[in-house]
Request: fold
Amino acid sequence: MTNNSALQVTNFNFYGDELIALKDNATGEIYASITHVFRGIGFTEKQIEHQKKKIMNDEILKNHTQKFSGVDLNMPSVNEISCISNRKLPLALAKITITPKMKQTQPELSQKLLRYQDKCADVLASVFIDHKTTDQINIQPILDTLNSLTKATNDTLLSLNERMSKIEEKQLQTEKSLPSKRFSYWTSKMFPKYQLLMDYFEIPTGKNGILYKELYKEFHNTYPDIEINQIVDDYCYDNGLDSCFTLDAIEHDKIIRKLFESMVDGLLEKYELLSENITVREKTIFDD
Reply:
C-alpha cells in the first residue's frame, strides 16, 4: 500500500457519477479508484468484488494497479483503496463481460459500460492535464483514428476471408454428409446451464471442454468417493466401446447423472445465474 504525500487527489463528475482521480507527482502516473468506477457503471457490491479480483489476478492489469492509503484520499475511515492506472483502465473495462443474467436484471449496465469504455480514461487524464470537464472533451479525433484503423484491418482481412470461404464451404459439405447426433433430453436441458457458466467465467464459445474439465474436478471435490474415470471405463465396457465422451457415461448412470446435475445447479445458484428452472420444451401442433 502506498502512503504518499505527493498525491493529487480530486473528485470529478463523469456524466453524473462521482469518481476519484489521483496523480502521483513522483511518477506522473494517473489512477482511478476501481471501486468507484465499477459502482458508477452500476455493478452491485458483490459484482464489484468479483471484478476487482479479476483485475488483481490478470497478468497484465495487476502490474498497473496500486493500493493507496485512505488517509491520502481524504477517506480516513477506509484503510486502503485499490486503484488502476489510467493507461490500463480502457483494457480493464474492455475485459468486462455482461452476462445474459445481468442484461436481464440490470439492463442499464451495457449502455453505461460502453460509455465508460469509450470516454472515462480521456476524462480522467483531462482532469489533471487539461483541467476540462466532461462536456468540454472532444474525443472525435480518437474515434476517427480507431475507425481508420478498423477499416485498414478489415481491408487486410478481406482477402483472407475470401480464401477461407472455399475451405468453409468444403467443411460444410463434409459436415452435411455426416449423420447428425440427436441429443438426449438431459443433454439438451444441461446445455443452457453450461452456457451460463461459460458466459460468467468468460470461456470462449466452442471451448466447452474447458468448462467440462473444471466441472469434473469440482465433481470429484464434491464427491471424492466417486471416480469419474471408473464410470467411463464401466460405460465403455458395458457398451463394447474403446472410448466415449465423459458426459455420455455420466448421463448413462442415473445416480451419477442426478448428482452431477445437482452440482451444476448449485454452481448456478452460487453465482446467481439462474432465477428459475430451465426446462426443455419441444414445439407441437398444440402450441398457440
